Amino acid sequence: xxxxxxxxxxxxxxxxxxxxxxxxxxxxxxxxxxxxxxxxxxxxxxxxxxxxxxxxxxxxxxxxxxxxxxxxxxxxxxxxxxxxxxxxxxxxxxxxxxxxxxxxxxxxxxxxxxxxxxxxxxxxxxxxxxxxxxxxxxxxxxxxxxxxxxxxxxxxxxxxxxxxxxxxx
Length: 169
Known about the structure:
24% of the residues lie in helices and 43% in strands. By secondary structure, the protein is α+β, with helices and mostly antiparallel strands. A five-stranded antiparallel β-sheet has the order 2-6-5-4-7, with helices on one face.
């Protein structure tokens, strides 16, 4: 099972993220855009996890209280490979919670990525924007989100489409 810990968003926030994504899509020559129901903010990517380890995952997740807290998403950016994202303004609650989550999962034997954590919501991958189009670095209308805490997600394909489903104990 391919698993990650993340923050889900309300319907309203996903709709606002879609508005930003549509601007990129309108100005893209090509790209693979995230499905609106898959919008989330990853905290810790666990990777492939055997089903018999799920109790350990849920126990670790429950041991790190995180939330509720507010996020303001307003910084548009890209990573190598045409990955476009929207990032939140600095949030001590988010960063402290992510550090605690990563620490507890490492203590419980999970091998996590060593790269620095950069909080973001992926809008799309392999995006090539049309020549001359330069999206704004900061949104004029920030997206306000509220997190009630982290959830466990399963990443899998259903009839060829990528889906992120919340798992519960």
